[in-house]
Amino acid sequence: MLYHFKKVATVSETWIPVFYAIAMGVDALAAILFGYLFDKKGFFVLIFSVIISVGFSPLCFLGGFYGAILGMILWGIGMGAQESIMRAAVALLVPKEKRGTGYGVFHTTYGFFWFLGSTILGTLYHFSVYALITVSVILQLSAIPLLLKVKKAYNQN
Hints:
With about 160 residues, the chain is an all-alpha fold. The protein has seven helices and no strands. The chain has helices spanning about 1-10, 15-40, 45-55, 55-60, 65-95, 100-125, 130-155.
């Protein structure tokens, strides 16, 4: 996103680190808030965070200066929620005696798919920003049925 801001001059070079700092500040606050909400409401909060953050890519890539700020805020919310809740979810889903393996499998899988998604989106960027946005939104929304399945499986235990 920051490369795009520079490339199309949505944001001046001076503002690019400020936008990133805003996203990271929101990330930190969202991690605390969504972690707290996860403790109170459970897996629904992770699904809710996906719904909130799904609009980041259209805003960042098509929204102009102010749209980009809002997009970075939404991206920060998504990152903060993922960084706090998903690790907590592993602790709830994996038996205590297998948690080390559970975290290893989680981080390996997460890292692999982060790399794969970044590669796909980076490649799409060179062909069409609209394709990148479409795939980004579809991938995020496709996580919801999986999260609902995990929520249902957890609630049955």
